[in-house]
Amino acid sequence: MAKPKTKAELIEAATTNYENLLKMIANRTEEEKAGNMIFRATTRKKKHTGKGAGICATF
User: Fold this and answer.
1) Quick one: which of 13, 34, 44, 55 could link to 50 by a disulfide (CB 3.0–4.6 Å)?
2) Count of the separate structural domains present in the chain
3) Residue span of the structural domain in which 16 resides
C-alpha cells in the first residue's frame, strides 16, 4: 500500500487498517482471545539520536 499523501487518503487508510484489525480479532477463537500474547524482544527499533550517520540507540 502506498503512503497516504493527503488527509483524506490517511483517514481512508486508517479506517481500512482498523477494519482489517477488527476482522482478524473476530476470526480468532475464544481460547486464542483469552490466551496470553507473546511478543518477541527482537523487534526493537533504532532511534537516531544525532545528525551523524552512525549515531543510533536501540530501544
Assistant:
1) 55
2) 1
3) 7-58
